[in-house]
Amino acid sequence: MGVGVKPPMYILIVGLGNPILGDDGVGWRVAEEVSARSGISLGDAPLPGLSPPTSDPVTIERYSLAGLSLMERLTGFDRVIIIDSLNTGQHSQGEVVHFTLADMDDLTHGHSASAHDVSLKNALKMGRHMGESLPDDEHVHIIAIEAQHIYDFKEELSSQIAAAVPVAAQIVLDLVEELTARD
After folding, report:
1. What pTM value is reported for the model?
2. Whole-number Å distance between alpha carbons of 106 and 123
C-alpha cells in the first residue's frame, strides 16, 4: 500500500434471526434485500472468526447466533450493522429504529446464568479484553424492526413486518454510504 493510502474500512452487515420463526426472520430478509439492491453477494461464513475479505470491504451475512458466537463473527471488522427484530412494545409493529450498541443498556449485566447466555455487549467486552480485533460499541449499529410475533413457527413474515423490509434495507444502504464516505 502506497504512502498516504488508507486501508479499506471493513463493514459487516449481519441479518440476525431465525427464518422459520415468522417475524424473527426479518433480519435475514433485510440482509437479502440489501444484497439484491447493492449487488453484494450473501457471504454466510462457514466458520467463526474468518478475516474480512480483501476484495470487497462490505460483507453481508445471515446468522442465528448471539453472545459469544456472534462476537467471534465480528472479529476483524471496523464497523458492524446488525439487523434484527425487536420486541419491546415501545414502538408500533413494523417500526424501524436505528441505534448503536453503545446506546443500549446491558440488561444481562450480573444476571447471566451461563457462558452461553452472554449479551453481545459483554461478549465484545470479553473479546476485546482477550485481544480480539473488534469494533467499539459505538461502531456497532443496530437496525431493528419492532415485531410481536417472533415465535410463530412459519417462514412468512406478517404483512406489517414484510412492509418494513424495504424501509430497513434503505436505512442500511444509507448507513453504509455514510460510513464509507466518512472514513
Report:
1. 0.85
2. 11
Q: Scanning the structure block, which residue is given the C-alpha cell 436505512?
A: 171
- CA dist., res. 77 & res. 80, Å (int): 7
Closest CA to 139 of 96, 77, 83, 91: 77
Hey, what amino acid is at 78?
D
Q: For residue 112, what is its C-alpha cell?
A: 447471566
Task: Tell me the per-residue pLDDT of 45-62, one tens digit each, with 9 for 90 and over.
Answer: 555 455 555 567 899 999
Strand partners, 96: 145
CA distance 139 to 109: 21
Tally of CA atoms within 13 A in the half-sphere of 45 that contains its CB: 22
Radius of gyration of the CA atoms of the chain, in A: 16
- Residues in the chain, pLDDT under 50: 48, 107-116
Which residue bears the cell 453503545?
A: 102
